[in-house]
Backbone:
């Protein structure tokens, strides 16, 4: 049973390009969370999705960022017109269910560098 | 004041020592507390979780929660060089879906 799979592991984009980060949850998990980790900062919650639905996007920047979790395929975090400040590690986590006592398992992350 | 405060370290201790890692929080809605370990360039790995005040033990690790003081701790006994990593506290509550993390403490166990 593979863990949470994220790809690519490393992504380099020039300013103004688009970045697409993919996350395949653990088998049987239908809840996906995206977090961002800036240098010298802790993990910050961005968005929570279930299949085909965005449940909580309270941590997402208002512009340029979007997320989806289609019925088939991985969850995608999309960043349009990237800027240097978007350089960070982006982590995806998945869980079997929702609720306060839910365990979330993290992937290895995608390290985005904007040049 | 940040919601979760955690000393970033680095904390350097000799092999075999008992390690104490701590977080304080300000929001009383937090009810569920976790500790994650993160090796360099890797994803966070869940170590322990607990809901209630008191102690929870798992092998060499003990998690302690004091809700009245809004203070949580992770103790590592018989520390090993392989324990060298960044330790993140995290918590959830108040209907939020995401976890709120501390910045992490960088721990170094000297052989």
Residues:
């Amino acid at each position: 049973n593979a863990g949470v799979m994220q790809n690519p592991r490393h992504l380099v984009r020039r300013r103004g390009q688009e970045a697409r980060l993919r996350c395949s949850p653990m088998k049987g998990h239908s809840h996906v969370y995206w977090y961002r980790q800036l240098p010298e900062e802790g993990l910050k919650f961005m968005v929570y999705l279930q299949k085909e639905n965005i449940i909580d996007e309270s941590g997402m920047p208002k512009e340029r960022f979007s997320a989806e979790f289609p019925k088939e395929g991985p969850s995608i975090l999309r960043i349009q017109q990237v800027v240097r400040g978007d350089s960070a590690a982006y982590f995806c986590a998945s869980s079997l269910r929702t609720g306060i006592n839910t365990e979330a398992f993290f992937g290895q992350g995608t390290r985005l560098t904007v040049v | 004041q940040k919601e979760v405060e955690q000393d970033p370290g680095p904390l350097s201790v000799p092999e075999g020592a008992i390690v104490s890692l701590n977080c304080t929080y300000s929001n009383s809605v937090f009810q569920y507390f976790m500790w994650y370990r993160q090796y360099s360039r890797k994803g966070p790995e869940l170590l322990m979780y607990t809901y209630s005040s008191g102690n929870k033990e798992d092998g060499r690790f003990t998690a302690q929660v004091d809700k009245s003081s809004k203070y949580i701790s992770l103790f590592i006994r018989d520390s090993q060089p392989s324990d060298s990593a960044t330790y993140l506290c995290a918590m959830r509550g108040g209907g939020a879906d995401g976890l709120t993390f501390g910045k992490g403490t960088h721990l170094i166990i000297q052989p």
The longest strand of chain B covers residues 30-38. The interface with chain A takes residues 4, 6, 8, 31-32, 36, 41-46, 49, 51, 88, 90, 92-93, 96-104 of chain B (CB under 8 Å).
